[in-house]
Amino acid sequence: MRVWVDASSGASGDMLLGALVDAGVPLSVITSAVDAVAPEPVRLDAEPVTRGALAATRCHVEIADSAHHRTWTDVRALLTGAPLDSSVRDLARQVFERLAVAEGAVHGISPEEVHFHEVGALDAIADVVGVCAGFAHLGADEIVVSPVAVGSGSVRAAHGTLPVPPPAVARLLTGVPSFAGPPGHPAMELCTPTGAALLTAVATSWGDQPPMTTRAIGVGAGSRNPEGWSNTLRLLIGDPADPVAGDGIFPPRRENSPTELVIEANIDDLEPRLIPGALDALLAAGARDAWVTPILMKKGRPAYTLHALTPAAAVDAVRRVFFHETSTIGVREHEVLKHALPREMLTVAVGGHPIAVKAARLDGETVNLQPEWDDVARAAAALGRPAIDVLAEAKIAALAETSAPSAETSRPSAE
């Protein structure tokens, strides 16, 4: 499943809650998770509203008056002791940790010392846990978030008047695309710290709507309804639409289209012995090729860049390998033009042992012959001969074979 979050008009916890409910996530799923964490009664209601003439769902969180300011330690204890699904607990913990780290950096204190004020109140705990439960219910493999509108002007907060984006929001959105807002947006806060923390926790990538077949749309409303402005957030939920295969939305791409993706990540904290297994996993997931480049990162740290050349159809699976098999928490992706020569696989024999050979052609002329190394190594071991000799003999046999091609000894390459 693929989800696109349109945060081009801003983001907050209640906007995300409303969008999830509007998209079909049962309110009972969200309520059950919130009830499991909240130490005091919390009531959630959803109602249809309009924002800037657009229909949306507004999610209300009703709580008793409370001036209780909780620390990150308090909130973490609530989450740890709650009977939550582990996926919901882990995601909610990540969101609050992001908030604590950002607030701590802004005020020059450790995350453990941060008092969340409004963020630690029951309504914000309900927003965070409810949104995490909603996304866990969707079970999306990929969540793409648009550039985030943050607003402009100033806002009143517990620490006084702050510029927009507030310092915590600016820190939370560091390294991801954001902007003030579309032309004509009101001078107001469009993205809250809770909204920023939630988006950065759930996003697997950032950008415009990816190719997808949309099955459900959710529109969540913010609490304010400024004139001439749609204070909403949208979710588009559906299935990846593969432009390679051609599914009625995108024209099919030619068999030998040169456009593919390179997915890569800089890694400086992974046990080096795990890298060969990660390369194998990338190839098994559908990457055309996978390789490692040694690099030197900041402060002189030796590191690696892990690369994978990937067809569009395998992007999701390859991206997941980066996150599951390595320590990276982000990847870069860019299109490359690949021009591959037509090739075929031949089978030759050396000392009675079969060896596959890849033959590449240019304008009908054989320009490259490459025996498969695993076959060469097996034949050399069985024959008790040096592998270099077996390799040379296999190339000579393949050269003779390509001078008089035989339909019986050639087959299409799997690549």
Q: What would you note in describing this structure?
A:
The protein has 415 residues and is α+β, with helices and mostly antiparallel strands. It has 3 domains: 2-240, no CATH class; 259-337, Transcriptional regulatory protein pf0864 domain like (Alpha-Beta Plaits), CATH 3.30.70.1380; 343-412, Ubiquitin-like (UB roll) (Roll). Helix content is 33%, strand content 29%. The chain is built from 11 helices and 19 strands. The chain has helices at residues 13-22, 27-37, 72-81, 86-107, 122-138, 167-172, 193-202, 275-284, 315-325, 373-383, 387-403, and strands spanning 2-6, 42-51, 54-63, 142-145, 148-149, 154-157, 160-163, 178-179, 205-206, 212-221, 232-240, 259-267, 289-296, 302-310, 332-337, 343-350, 353-362, 365-371, 410-412. It has a 5-stranded mixed beta sheet. The protein has a 4-stranded antiparallel beta sheet with strand order 13-14-12-15, with helices on one face. A hairpin with a 2-residue loop joins strand 2 and strand 3. Helix 2 packs across helix 5 (122-138) and helix 3 (72-81) runs antiparallel to helix 4. The protein is elongated, with a radius of gyration of 27 Å. The two termini are 27 Å apart. The relative contact order is 0.12. The model is unreliable at 244-257 and 405-415 (pLDDT under 50). Belongs to the LarC family. It comes from Nocardioides albus.
End-to-end Cα distance, whole Å, is 27 Å
Number of helices: 11
Number of domains: 3
Query: Could you tell me the radius of gyration in angstroms?
Result: 27 Å
Shape designation: elongated
Largest sheet: 5 strands, mixed
Instruction: Please identify the structural class as seen in this structure.
Output: alpha+beta
Order of helices and strands: EHHEEHHHEEEEHEHEEEEHEEHEEEEHHE
Mean pLDDT: 85
Helix content: 25-40%
Protein name: Pyridinium-3,5-bisthiocarboxylic acid mononucleotide nickel insertion protein
Pfam families: Ni_insertion
EC number: 4.99.1.12
GO molecular function: lyase activity; nickel cation binding
